[in-house]
Specification:
The protein has 2 domains: 195 residues, Alpha-Beta Complex (2-enoyl-CoA Hydratase, Chain A, domain 1), CATH 3.90.226.10; 47 residues, Orthogonal Bundle (Lyase 2-enoyl-coa Hydratase, Chain  A, domain 2), CATH 1.10.12. It is globular, with a radius of gyration of 19 Å. It has a 6-stranded mixed β-sheet, sandwiched between helices. Helix 1 runs parallel beside helix 3 and helix 3 runs parallel beside helix 4. It is α/β, with parallel strands linked by helices and 259 residues long. The mean pLDDT is 96.
Length: 259
């Protein structure tokens, strides 16, 4: 694979780049297979505090590479193996311990939108076009992929999007929660960078545990577990709280040590 996926890390921000601009960043089996390992390397890098996922060349991703369909769907066994690799990539991103931002421009369709939905926050250009298209291909999306769509837009809107496979324009995407913020195309880069910088400057102890608590709520938890109750105590005893408290009392900007 010739750099179809790239990872760059700068100033605490890791960027995972889908890098097939000549194919609108359509995702190949090799790309799906490589994503979990790349995410593991970013998770292990203490200099990376937030992950941005984006596409090269002004497009997020046009979905799975249709030119591979004849091969990957050749037999029930190859189909199962392909879906397993896609599912592993999606779950690796959804379960990634650090905060994640989707930088969305151009087309964001099918598996591309699935990746964006696996990110914590989706920031899009005002000319973005989004769609989930199983209804145009006779396919079915996995339960985890569908659940993430339901959590973003609700039950009836999920049905509408999946039944029709229609393009969702930027204004509607913001109104229904498919994306979280819109910016003009020429200011999107700065908006994503600013959001990433805000997260980098904040407590990583807070961000990572907040992310897990929110997921527990999404999964149906209604009260503190033994784990979340322990985190409350550990936070007060932790180095980030000491730094945050001291910075507040001395009226300076905190520099949180937790990595």
């Amino acid at each position: 694979m010739r750099d179809d996926l790239k990872v760059e890390i700068l100033d605490g921000v890791a960027t995972l780049i889908l890098n097939r601009p000549e194919k609108k960043n359509a995702l190949t089996l090799a790309m799906w297979t490589a994503i979990p390992g790349l995410l593991a390397s970013v998770a292990a890098d203490q200099t990376a505090k937030v992950l941005v996922v984006r596409g090269a060349g002004g497009t997020f991703a046009a979905g799975a590479d249709i030119s591979e369909f004849e091969t990957v769907y050749a037999t029930p066994e190859s189909t199962r193996a392909y879906f397993d690799r896609v599912g592993e990539a999606m779950e690796a991103l959804a379960a990634f311990e650090k905060p994640t931002l989707a930088h969305i421009e151009g087309a964001c369709v099918g598996g591309g939108l699935g990746l964006a939905l696996a990110c914590d926050v989706r920031i899009a250009a005002t000319d973005v076009r989004l769609a989930l298209t199983p209804g145009k291909l006779g396919l079915v999306y996995s339960l985890p992929d569908t659940r993430r769509l339901v959590q973003a837009v609700g039950l009836s809107r999920t049905k509408d999007i999946l039944f029709t496979g229609r393009l969702v324009q930027a204004d509607e995407a913001l109104a229904i929660g498919l994306v979280d913020a819109l910016h003009a195309p020429d200011s999107l880069e700065r908006a994503v960078a600013d959001k990433a910088a805000q997260i980098v400057a904040a407590s990583q102890w807070t961000a990572r545990r907040a992310k897990r608590i929110v997921q527990l709520i999404a999964d149906g938890e209604t009260g503190d577990t033994d784990l979340t109750a322990r985190w409350l105590i550990e936070a007060v005893e932790g180095e980030d709280f000491r730094e945050g408290r001291d910075a507040f009392l001395t009226k300076r900007t905190p520099v949180f040590p937790y990595r």
